[in-house]
Amino acid sequence: MNITYVGGHAFKLSAKDTTIAVNPPSAKSSFKVSKFGSDIVLVATDHPDWSGVDTASHSGKEPFVISGPGAYEVGEMTATGFPSEGALQGETSDYANTIYNVEFDGMQILFLGALSSGKLPHDVRSSIDEVDIIFIPVGGATLAPKVAHELVVSLEPKLIIPYAVGDSDDLKSFIKMAGGTDGKSIEKMSIRAKDISVMRGDIAVFK
What we know:
By secondary structure, the chain is of the alpha/beta class. It has helices at 122-127, 145-155, 168-177, 193-196; strands spanning 2-7, 10-15, 18-22, 40-43, 64-67, 70-74, 77-84, 97-104, 107-111, 133-138, 159-164, 188-190, 202-203. The two termini are 18 Å apart.
């Protein structure tokens, strides 16, 4: 599987003939991202910075959109969405957040979206046997560095991929707490299930 950072809080995961876009920003967002094609789009919250299905629709591809709680199976990917406390607020109401527990390319992947609480809902906890990769928000109105660190310690993921929602210093604090370094950030990585099996809380920082 190839994991690529595409901008904002968005990532692209590709394996075989399937590409998944996670939280692409829309054209209305302040994050400017080039359009790209995808087969599946995961939307954690219906906010312009996180829900750009238009951004992930390109070159004739009309992706299958997963937005909100429920059980989904699309080709080789299965996903379960769970409602959770969200960090984003609008003028009249809060934006609901969805956590996705995904199985893709032989790996269990947890996407936390714009999660604002370090205490996961019971149904999320009970559904998790193990976490190979976790995508976790840090800073802003999402998880404070210490809270994010405590959550990953409790889940024991093999690979941690944090993304800054607020000040970049929050992300640096989290990386330090988690035992990472201020080494060079990456834009893309390739990883296989057998690579994941030997990891123990490794951290990958994307730019």
